[in-house]
User: Fold this.
Amino acid sequence: MSFRLTYATMFNPPEAMHERFEAAMARVSADLGRRHELFINGEDRPAANHAQRRSPIDSALSLGEFALANAGDVDSAMRAAHAAFPAWRALPVAERARLMRKVGDLMEERVYDIAAALTLEVGKNRMEALGEAQETVDFFHYYADDYEQNAGYDRPLPNDPLEGTVSRNRSVMRPHGVWVVIAPFNFPFALAGGPVAAALVTGNTVVVKAASDTPWSGRLLADCIRDAGLPPGVFNYVSGSGREVGEALAQHPLTAGITFTGSVGVGMQLLRQMAGGAYPRPCIAEMGGKNPCIVTENADLERAATGIVRSAFGMGGQKCSALSRLYVHDSVADQLIGLLRGKIEAIRIGDARSRENWLGPVINDSAYGNYAHYMQQLQSDGATVVAGGRQLRDGDLARGYYVEPVLAEADLAHPLWKQEMFLPIVMLHRYRDREHAMRLANDTDMGLTAGFYGGSDEVPWFQDRIEAGVTYANRPQGATTGAWPGYQPFGGWKGSGSTGKAIASFYYLQQYLREQSRTVVE
Assistant:
């Protein structure tokens, strides 16, 4: 197919894409229930304990039994990665890049089966799942290309200005060692695969931990890397709780660096931990967002409503980039609310395997309970719920974690303006002064993504003043969501990110390297 799938193009795919997904879902569903082990030092490693995982689509649907690593498994994985590091680091740039492309090529061959597994494991609709699988393919290809194009960051420098002596200088970027990747549940394949690709191509070896809710995705990533023929120990996969496995990885003496995606609390803890000890070690932390969108009186309201709904409610709002705070000029607020209400009521909610359903379940019982808690908090604190607000318990939906998207108009004093809910809930405030709207948009400790709808002459004002790492103006594909490798770098400011460098940007790979200055006198 000539169609190129990205998060921006996924709203009108060719029919063949649906046919291939349906076939993949049948294949994957027929193989459910198997036991999945850890992957350490090039081999499957049986664990002492396993946990059965069920789909958030239907709690009666068993996905399989997944290994639970313990401290001994973590130590084995770290030691395997440490032993493999010297030989992996010594490989030529072109050879590591070739292997990364091979991983990406294998993923692309399996992209429909991986997407089917993502739908079953996470509950995202088929286009979101296909987008995540293809995005991970693009990460492996993009980082291989980037590393080669930069010649492995090996730069000749001018010779020292000495008479009678040749003193040659170079700047060389070198890998750190064993890199730990801790992935979240919402993009378990892409936000494991992307950092893994970056760490590996730059010469580090890797131990990756999947989120507790999504161990299958991590195992599928391990299968692709195993089948690409990487040497034993270069990549290792463990799964289990953050409290046990995540802590063991962070505290291990062989951990040279960490990439973490998740909550602010855990991210800040890891940053402090990696900064302590005998010397500071790198920690790339992406820690969520409380993302705003400003709509002025000059906006195309139909375009705004489309982008708002897609960003606020896509994948149940379980994205760090999801729209959470909406600031609308008073003169157009009622009209926009009417458009939003209509689009929200038209959303098909249900089994994410079905093509007609755009919104599947939230991830687990905890998220389901949080939704009820936030709804009670909104209503008890005086917010007006414009649309949504119910947990859906009728028929087959009673066996999953299904909720309605929520649009609520709330006083600025409401505490939920400051809290990342990670659910399909967006709060609205009417404003009269544009500068006041910008102050409200920036009034957060986080700064991941931000959206804007207004006149073309207003866009520079928005871009110059907004405090966010990723910005979108007048984008119907998504007010605050939809970054793709090679098109939009993705990274946050303030509490949303620890480095100021974005995923798939010009500056990302250097974070996995450290500089060495080399002078040789001949």
Notes: The chain has a mean pLDDT of 97. The chain has two domains: 15-51+63-153+172-281+499-521, 291-484.
